[in-house]
Design goal:
seven-stranded mixed β-sheet; single chain; Rossmann fold; 2 domains; globular; six-stranded antiparallel β-sheet; Beta-Lactamase; alpha/beta
Amino acid sequence: MAKIDAFFKLMHEQGASDLHLMAGGQPALRIRGDIERVKYDVLDNDHLRSMIYEITPEEKIKLFEETGDIDFGYEILGLARYRVNFFMQRSGVGAVFREIPSVIATTEQLGLPPVVAKLATLPRGLVVLTGPTGSGKSTTLAAIIDVANRIRKDHIITIEDPIEFVHNGQNCIINHREVGVHTKSFAAALRGALREDPDIILVGEMRDLDTMSLAIEAASTGHLVFATLHTTSAAKTVDRIIEVFPGDQQAQIRSTLADGLRAVVAQVLFKRIDKKGRCVAPEVLIATPAVRNLIRESKTHQLPSMMQTGKKYGMQLLDDAIMNLFNKGWISADEAYAKSNDKDQFRPFLTSGPSDFTEA
């Protein structure tokens, strides 16, 4: 057993999402969104480097020594997988580990609306999961892929950096590919995937123009593509994708995206105040013919109104989802206010000024 595994066991026992180790400081855990220090000695740089290198592949050590920053996956059988990032900082080495549960939660267990599970049944098109870092996008994607794995008879390819949730093939064949290990880049893996007879392709992150272009192309040529972005709403997700492309290509990509898009799920995580744990507020945009027409005609500012009137299709505004959680007594007024889009809707519930004084 590696020496560092003791920290992972502590992390698991405490229900922490992240473990922080840094030279010159004490270890720390992120529990329910808050950083909590571990009662342990300040970590020495040489000792910490030795400890983390014990679990690091040789090629990753070489890359880290050259670049000062690496990502990879680590697994403790019977416990969990971990998304790992090493970085150099002022006092020496730093490392952050995100726990990836070994058991994949269902959409129902995550508190997601039924329409999210139905996305796994789509025959083709692009589905985008979006939200801030740490908002549970990978967990939601894993739940959707798990539905597809159980009810479909297809070939699923996942492209991630690093591999997070591992799916064992049930009715589907599943191939997991890791950027930097099994393929050079997201774009290279996507190009290859189109020749690998896939039905469903999961793209861990659409980071650049090439990846976005290939993902949209794959969705437009008969594949079901799931991908993630870092945006704060469904409407902004559509704009972000289009704005990545050069100006002279935007009209064409707008039309292609309008044809290929099937759904956008934008989600935010909240700390629960009624019990330990966190809960999700999802915004859901379903690409009905009317929605696609708004995208095609560059009227994305009208998408929130379309979502407000599209509840029968499973659409939901983020603020409505947040209000639902607040009315249940699950989340605080301050956090509801801080993470909402329409601040005026939640301002009357504040007992004092908002924690973000710039919003006052």
